[in-house]
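wait is this the right file?? whatever heres the structure
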């Protein structure tokens, strides 16, 4: 299976790492808003609304164009922007919920544009008779790492401080995506 699907192992590893990095941020966002920024439920609701508006905007953008060239560049570039969104939210001055909302908008937009590109790459790279197995493996990897990210989020945020932890997550996400782009053959594959 891995030999007949070029780049799948790298894509699966990318998905695993991306989920592991993003899950702790999402799990700790309510704490970040209420404790770090002294926000209320209404502040969190507005911040999450920014993410939903970003998701809807991203979905509209992705649906307007039928054929996308340089899918790997779009996927990994979008993932870098997702982590920039994490950093924008992290560096928001205390009580500046609008800035956190901008970070969440970026995250929502890039996830809504990146995930369809990711699944398009998988569908075009994998032969139809193997798609069920490949998608199952991919989903298993992604779902398996999420609880681990949830479990380590609290202790790491306590140990490092939530802002430091978010900075590490954002920078790690950027570095991982750049390393995958420049150090693997993924960017040379034609999807």
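ok assuming it is, sequence goes like this
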């Amino acid at each position: 299976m891995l030999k007949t699907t070029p780049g799948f192992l790298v894509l699966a590893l990318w998905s695993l790492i991306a989920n592991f990095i993003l899950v702790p941020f999402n799990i700790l966002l309510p704490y970040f808003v209420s404790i770090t920024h002294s926000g209320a439920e209404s502040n969190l609701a507005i911040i999450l609304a920014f993410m939903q508006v970003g998701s809807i905007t991203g979905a509209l953008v992705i649906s307007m164009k039928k054929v996308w060239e340089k899918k790997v560049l779009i996927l990994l570039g979008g993932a870098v922007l997702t982590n920039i969104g994490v950093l924008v939210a992290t560096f928001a001055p205390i009580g500046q919920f609008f800035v956190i909302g901008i970070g969440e908008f970026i995250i929502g937009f890039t996830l809504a544009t990146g995930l369809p590109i990711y699944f398009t790459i998988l569908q075009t790279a994998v032969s139809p008779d193997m798609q069920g197995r490949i998608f199952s493996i991919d989903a298993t990897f992604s779902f398996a790492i999420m609880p681990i990210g949830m479990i380590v989020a609290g202790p790491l945020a306590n140990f490092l401080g939530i802002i430091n932890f978010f900075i590490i997550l954002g920078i790690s996400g950027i570095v991982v995506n750049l390393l995958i782009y420049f150090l693997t053959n993924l960017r040379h594959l034609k999807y």
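The helical segments are 8-36, 41-64, 71-90, 97-125, 131-160, 162-183. so i think its the right one actually
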